[in-house]
Design brief:
GO terms for molecular function: metal ion binding; transferase activity. It comes from Halorientalis regularis. By secondary structure, the protein is mainly beta. It has three helices and nine strands, in the order αβαββαββββββ. The strands form two sheets. It has a five-stranded antiparallel beta sheet with strand order 2-3-1-4-5, covered by helices on one side. The protein has a four-stranded antiparallel beta sheet with strand order 6-7-8-9, covered by helices on one side. The longest helix has 10 residues. The chain starts with a helix and ends in an 11-residue tail after the last strand. It binds cytidine-5'-triphosphate (CTP) and zinc ion.
């Protein structure tokens, strides 16, 4: 296939391309980045596009934005094969694979309503990253599925 035929989502000028996202996870990627369209961000998404490495993959391109390490850490939980490409002036100037952190702090909300992190006292949530999910460091509640549904919203 020629390059023209392969290109599904146009290139960006400046910003971040999150590539090799597990097929079907693009909307969860947007949730992790706090993007719901209301902030006026310029975003392009490819869903279930063919990939040699993954069979099918999602791609999320965000114009004019770079990601924080916290955001990348949570992304790794739902898209372990993702690559983060930083684009400046149309060129990919940095590319790295996401890595599973040993813990994520302040990003997820504990589903246990009696957990100290969900009380009025401002205690940052803290989850240990396990093979199959994440575990609250304060009450040991384990989240195994739909991790993106537990992203902390202010
Ligand atoms: N990309 C983009 N806008 C740019 C440059 C790149 O949207 N100005 C996208 C490409 O479409 C691709 C990703 O960023 O999805 C990575 O670009 P590049 O490193 O050029 O592609 P590959 O070499 O195919 O990447 P990889 O080896 O990681 O698969
Ligand atoms: Zn807890």
């Amino acid at each position: 296939m020629s390059e023209d035929q392969q290109l599904r989502v146009s290139k960006i000028t400046e910003g971040t391309v999150i590539d090799h996202v597990t097929g079907g996870q693009a909307l969860n990627v947007l949730a992790i980045l706090g993007i719901d369209g209301s902030g006026g961000e310029e975003v392009s998404i490819g869903m279930n596009v063919p990939s040699e490495r993954l069979g099918r993959k999602d791609v999320v391109k965000v114009e004019g934005r770079e990601l924080s390490q916290d955001e990348v850490d949570v992304l790794s939980l739902i898209a372990p094969a993702a690559t983060i490409n930083i684009v400046r002036d149309y060129d990919v100037v940095e590319k790295h694979r996401v890595e599973r952190p040993s813990e994520v702090v302040g990003v997820l909300q504990c589903p246990n309503r009696n957990c100290i992190t969900t009380k009025d006292e401002p205690v940052d949530s803290r989850f240990a990253v396990l093979e199959e999910g994440v575990r609250c460091a304060y009450c040991d509640t384990i989240i195994r599925e739909s991790i993106a549904d537990h992203i902390h919203v202010d």
